[in-house]
Amino acid sequence: MVVAGERIGTSDLWVGVLDQSLPSEYSPLPVLDEPVSTETGWENSSIHLAEVFLVGRSDDVNTSVTNVALGKNRIERWYDDFDIDEDGFTEDVVVSIEHLEAEDAEFIPHEAQIQTYDSGAPLLRSSGNQLQIVGVNWFIGQIDVHPSPARGIRNTSGFSYTGNFAPQIHGIVNAFQIDATNGYIAWMQGAFPAGTTLAQSGTSVDFDRDGLNNFLEYAFVKDPASGALSTAVESGRTELGGLWYASASFMAREDSELVYFVRVGGDLQNWERVNLIFDGSNWSSADEGKVIVQNATSSLAGVWEITVRDAASVSPGAQRFVSIGAE
Predict the structure, then answer these.
(1) Could you give the angle at the alpha carbon of 304 between the alpha carbons of 300 and 310, nearest 5°?
(2) Which of 17, 83, 161, 200 is the most exposed place for a label (fewest CB within 10 A)?
């Protein structure tokens, strides 16, 4: 499911965030990242007159998005700051032109143009035996292709060009290298200052540069915009019957998609991991022979203060370590 999204500039490009990573059998297509800013730059670019694949519905009557067809054309125009719908928004666009087989030398087999309801489908190019996203369908128009000698009006297809927005696209993709839970997405809406982009509020970003990425700020109930150096876990020790045990305290959320875990060991290499279990009213250890939940107190709605300890005591002259994590 798409749980968040953001429009890129005023273009028709939009990046969505899924509620989980795609299965391994899905292979994302690369995005063309070649910027074009001038007419000369366009003429010298790899997309100048490049053959591309247009994706759209197989007819202009049925609005189904499952009956899809593929056609070909060329990128024949580049417009700087094109005003697409007279709403004051302008962006750089690339355009393909409809050619008539009997009249235009530029006609290519299987030529296609986008139709109503095709907006948002990808414009693709074959590059190194791999399809590459060049843009997305945006608008339909018309153009007088060659007024002298007259050849008449031809239909056009306009596309948002990814090359000029690749940094913003990759910024959002990279910001969510850690999966976001639905709880995170809801929390994210109010946890950051107004105007914060997805590239800044994504799970894998350290927005306030305090050493904790935004995902850890969420999982351990921290302020992701404070900028104050802090730790997600407080280390400690517990004395029971004359024996000492390594312990750790932290805040946790009631998020069914989150997994909290504890690792214990006698060095920093050979860890034993134990998940924590929340049953709706309390927390427990999945293996009390290794980790014990010493205390769990609900401090706010959906938030808990938890202290765990190592089940093995610290022997004289030895050392024990406790590490807390969330995923």
Answers:
(1) 160
(2) 83
